[in-house]
């Protein structure tokens, strides 16, 4: 589903995901974990819809979370609050259990953010961003992305052709199957390489790599992007300053020590700035939907007065 | 044949800066030349068409190319300055997440010099596309066997390309194919680790082949593939998993994760051996033929 935040300039999306993924990967404060998890999940809901988000998470992320949360108290034995003892004689402590849960939440939210990243930062945006720093590598990446479906289609053509002359891979003896499969791969390789050389020559004769040539892009850094970039930078600075004062310190070893709860002014500001930052895509998208609805309502009102734009 | 070569040389002369060094001629001390070059400068359009480059421009460009390029400097800064700084920063400020942070950053620093070196070399278009095709075949191999866990031909293709096209191409095929296939499998904190470990296998294959330690025989390649899959790929990815999921790294933990990874690594290595056994001979022959036919200088 196309959301409003994806339509911003690639620099904005990249900066957002870089910040959010890095911060959520390295901060283990429970409030930060909760904020990050909540915003990642709600952005997933906007991008994928309720059904797909739940399906993805219940199938893959939830079991992963349980395994990580259980693995930590099994293999680590630090902490002072002993709850029980394992059959091997090692203690199970409250601290390791809590840390395991925090770890599992952290891992899960990083995966959720990456799910959003895959949807928003499409490969063309990535190549647009890195095309200036590493032109050859990003061209190579974009070509590889093109070649994968092309080669897959051609593999089907080859398979059909081979089937017609009796070299099918779907039945027969196993050795024959393997032999035919290898033959198909070899045909594909030859075709792909010859095709690649042709393509290279064609690119060169059209002037690829000459000085002063530009790359096509449809992205424009406009007012809206500038505004959101300023907001993002301000929030990030507030967050870092607030974080560096030590209000959001947390330690799980040897005892669980959480600062910033109950809320005081500084920690409150830090938490709020982080929450706003993480929720920016959701806020932007909801505001956009609200505005669209309001405008349509306006039109409906006008329609009653005699205008008819659509039925 | 000779005519085709002439055309090739002519094209190289016009399009590749590198090649022009071979055709170095003495600068004629002729007033006509400077006049002509001035005339060409006037003719230069805003688009800076390369055809109207004056001789002086050519020589000045050659001088600059001998200096350290920006990319080399960036690489040096990363290697000498950034990595110790990152480690110090991680240990001082990251607390219990320091291993994850340092690990991922060092993986990036390890990949960047290869990419930057490739960029500053100004690779030929043909080279670029051949590497892209090999990566695409590797990605296709990884997606084709998506149903069978750990049974992937991707390392086999990376080793073959390292052996035929040299260490640099081997690294690029490995890193790019891992990066691209994660667009289909899902990106995550494991991407830099996979990119580096697959890339370094291609690199090592290329280096060992150049040194004569690795032969283009099936047995030799299969042996290398088996060892590389277990010791390089498994050797990097197992502790990477530990670093990603936990934060208290102990020697027992590392030993434990290596032991628990043995079956997976063995399955992976077996698949690499099977694919190398089946496709290596044909693939290497084809790649060599392409190299010879089109004169790829790798």
UniProtKB/TrEMBL annotation, chain A:
Membrane topology: Multi-pass membrane protein
Signal peptide annotation: none
An example Gene Ontology CC term for this record: plasma membrane
Stretches that traverse the bilayer: 12-38, 58-75, 96-115, 227-245, 265-287
Main location as per UniProt: membrane
Keywords from the named record: Membrane, Transmembrane, Transmembrane helix
InterPro entries on file: ABC/ECF_trnsptr_transmembrane
Subcellular location: Membrane
CDD domains noted in UniProt: EcfT (cd16914)
Name this protein carries in UniProt: Energy-coupling factor transport system permease protein
Organism: Acetitomaculum ruminis DSM 5522
Lineage: Bacteria, Bacillati, Bacillota, Clostridia, Lachnospirales
Automatic annotation (TrEMBL), chain B:
Transmembrane segments: 73-92, 99-116, 128-148, 155-180, 192-209, 221-245, 257-279
Pfam families named in the record: ECF-ribofla_trS
GO cellular component, one term: membrane
Record-linked InterPro entries: ECF_substrate-spec-like
Keyword entries, A-Z: Membrane, Transmembrane, Transmembrane helix
Name of protein: Energy-coupling factor transport system substrate-specific component
Organism the protein comes from: Acetitomaculum ruminis DSM 5522
């Amino acid at each position: 589903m196309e959301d409003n935040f994806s339509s911003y300039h690639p620099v904005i999306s990249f900066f957002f995901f870089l910040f959010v993924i890095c911060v959520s990967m390295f901060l283990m404060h429970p409030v930060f974990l909760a904020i990050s998890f909540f915003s990642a999940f709600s952005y997933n809901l906007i991008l994928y819809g309720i059904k797909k988000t739940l399906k993805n998470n219940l199938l893959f992320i939830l079991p992963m979370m349980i395994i990580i949360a259980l693995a930590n108290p099994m293999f680590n034995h630090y902490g002072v609050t002993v709850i029980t003892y394992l059959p091997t004689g090692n203690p199970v402590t409250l601290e390791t259990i809590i840390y395991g849960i925090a770890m599992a939440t952290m891992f899960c939210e990083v995966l959720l953010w990456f799910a959003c990243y895959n949807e928003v930062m499409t490969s063309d945006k990535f190549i647009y961003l890195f095309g200036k720093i590493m032109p050859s590598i990003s061209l190579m990446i974009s070509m590889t992305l093109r070649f994968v479906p092309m080669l897959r289609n051609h593999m089907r053509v080859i398979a059909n052709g081979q089937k017609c002359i009796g070299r099918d891979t779907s039945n027969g003896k196993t050795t024959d199957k393997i032999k035919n499969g290898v033959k198909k791969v070899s045909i594909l390789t030859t075709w792909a390489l010859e095709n690649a050389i042709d393509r290279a020559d064609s690119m060169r004769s059209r002037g690829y790599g000459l000085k002063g040539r530009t790359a096509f892009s449809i992205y424009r850094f406009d007012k809206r992007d500038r505004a959101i970039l300023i907001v993002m930078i301000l929030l990030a600075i507030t967050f870092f300053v607030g974080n560096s004062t030590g209000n959001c310190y947390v330690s799980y070893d040897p005892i669980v020590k959480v600062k910033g709860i109950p809320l005081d002014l500084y920690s409150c500001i830090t938490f709020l700035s982080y929450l706003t930052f993480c929720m920016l895509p959701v806020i932007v998208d909801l505001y956009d939907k609200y505005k669209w609805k309001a405008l349509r309502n306006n039109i409906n009102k006008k329609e009653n007065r005699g205008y008819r734009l659509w039925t | 044949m000779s005519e085709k070569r002439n055309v090739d040389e002519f094209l190289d002369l016009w399009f590749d800066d590198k090649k022009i060094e071979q055709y170095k001629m003495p600068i004629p001390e002729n007033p006509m030349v400077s006049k002509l070059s001035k005339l060409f400068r006037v003719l230069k359009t805003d688009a800076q068409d390369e055809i109207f480059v004056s001789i002086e421009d050519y020589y000045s460009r050659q001088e600059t190319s001998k200096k350290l390029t920006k990319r080399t400097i960036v690489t040096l800064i990363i290697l000498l300055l950034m990595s110790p700084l990152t480690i110090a920063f991680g240990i001082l400020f990251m607390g219990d997440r320091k291993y994850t942070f340092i690990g991922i950053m060092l993986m990036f620093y390890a990949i960047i010099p290869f990419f930057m070196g490739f960029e500053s070399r100004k690779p030929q278009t043909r080279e670029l596309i051949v590497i892209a095709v090999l990566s695409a075949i590797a990605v296709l191999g990884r997606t084709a066997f998506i149903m069978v866990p750990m049974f992937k031909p991707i390392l086999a293709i990376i080793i073959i390309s390292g052996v035929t096209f040299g260490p640099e191409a081997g690294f690029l095929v490995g890193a790019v194919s891992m990066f691209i296939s994660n667009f289909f499998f899902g990106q995550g904190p494991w991407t830099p680790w996979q990119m580096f470990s697959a890339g370094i296998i291609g690199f090592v294959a290329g280096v060992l082949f150049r040194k004569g330690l690795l032969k283009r025989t099936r047995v030799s390649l299969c042996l290398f593939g088996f060892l590389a899959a277990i010791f390089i790929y498994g050797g990097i990815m197992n502790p990477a998993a530990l670093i990603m999921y936990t934060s208290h790294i102990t020697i027992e933990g590392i030993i434990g994760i290596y032991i628990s990874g043995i079956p997976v690594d063995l399955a992976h290595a077996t698949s690499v051996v099977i694919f190398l056994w089946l496709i290596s001979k044909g693939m290497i022959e084809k790649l060599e033929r392409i190299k010879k036919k089109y004169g790829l200088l790798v």
